[in-house]
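Example for tutorial group B:
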C-alpha cells in the first residue's frame, strides 16, 4: 500500500510527514524543507524542490500542500523530502520506510467524475 493516496484534482488534503533518522525526529528549526516527486516508472519529475510548511519544527513535522499540476495525472510516484539545516547541510528523507523502500510512495488515482 502507498504511503499517501490522493485522487486526480484533489488539493484539499495535504501530505504531512514526520522526518526522522535512526536517532529519532529531526528538529527542523531554522532550516528549510522541500518536496520532490517523480513518476515511479519513467522517472520523469513531477515536483522539484517545492517548499513545504514546517508545522511543528521541533517535532520534525512538515506539510506539503498540493498544486494543481502535482495531482493532474493518475499514476504511481516516488517522493522525497529534502531538509536544509540552518548551517546549509542537506538531508533527504525517508532514510528508509517500514517496508524498506528508499522513497515515499504516492498514488494519484482516478476519480469517478
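The residue assignment follows.
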Amino acid at each position: 500500500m502507498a504511503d499517501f493516496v490522493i485522487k486526480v484534482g484533489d488539493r484539499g488534503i495535504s501530505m504531512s510527514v514526520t522526518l526522522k533518522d535512526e536517532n529519532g525526529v529531526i528538529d527542523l528549526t531554522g532550516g528549510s524543507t522541500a518536496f520532490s516527486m517523480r513518476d515511479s516508472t519513467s522517472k520523469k519529475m513531477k515536483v522539484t524542490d517545492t517548499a513545504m510548511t514546517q508545522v511543528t519544527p521541533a517535532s520534525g513535522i512538515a506539510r506539503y500542500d498540493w498544486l494543481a499540476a502535482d495531482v493532474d495525472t493518475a499514476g504511481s510516484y516516488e517522493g522525497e523530502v529534502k531538509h536544509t539545516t540552518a548551517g546549509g547541510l542537506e538531508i533527504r528523507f525517508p532514510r528508509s520506510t517500514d517496508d524498506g523502500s528508499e522513497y515515499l510512495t504516492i498514488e494519484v488515482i482516478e476519480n469517478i467524475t
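DSSP finds no helices and eleven strands in the chain. Compare this with the pattern of hydrophobic and polar residues in the output above.
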